[in-house]
Amino acid sequence: MKVVYPGSFDPVTNGHLDIIKRAANIYEEVIVCLLINPRKNYLFDMDERIEMLEELLYDYDNIKIAKYSGLLIDFVEENNVDAIIRGIRAVSDYETELQLAQMNKFYSKKNIETLFMVAEPQYSYLSSSIVKEIASFNRDVSKLVPENVAKKIKSKFN
Ligand code: ADP
Predict the structure, then answer these.
(1) Does pTM surpass 0.90?
(2) For the chain, what is the domain count?
(3) SS3 letters for 23-59?
(4) Most exposed: 29, 38, 83, 100, by fewest CB within 10 Å?
C-alpha cells in the first residue's frame, strides 16, 4: 500500500518524523508531500523544507519526498496513492481533520480514505508554529526538532 503524508513541514519537527517513520513501518511506500498553501506565510521556502527532510530521510528506501502545488486529491490520483495519513495530537486537531478527510473523500474519484495516527504523548504539544515562536525569542529548540533543523532555525533568527 502506498500512502501520502501531506503537510507544510515549516519546519519538520520530531512529531512529524515520528509519524513518518511509524507509517513507513506499516506501509510499503510513504510519500511525504509538501503542499503549497497560498494562504500561509512560510519561514522556510520550499527548497529549504525539502532539503531538511531529505537530509533526515535519505536512508529510508520506502520514504519519498514530493512537492505539489495543486489539490491533494489530484496528487493522490496522479500518483496512485491508496490512502492519506494525518497525525492527530489533540481534540483540537480532530475537527479540522474530520472536515478535510470528508472533503477529500467527497471530491476524490476513488473515495480516498484518510487514516489517522495518534501523536506520541511527548509530541502532542509540538507544532511547527510553536517551534518558530519559541525560536524567535532566541530560545533553544533542539529538543523539539532534529539537529539540522535546529541549526537552520537558529541561523534564520540570527
Ligand atoms: P498542515 O499545514 O497541513 O497542518 P503540518 O506540517 O503542520 O501541516 O502537519 C502535517 C501533519 O502532521 C498533520 O496531520 C498534523 O496534524 C500532523 N502533526 C503536526 N505536528 C505533529 C506532532 N507533533 N505529532 C504528530 N503529528 C503531528
Answers:
(1) yes
(2) 1
(3) HHHHCCEEEEEEECCCCCCCCCCHHHHHHHHHHHHCC
(4) 38
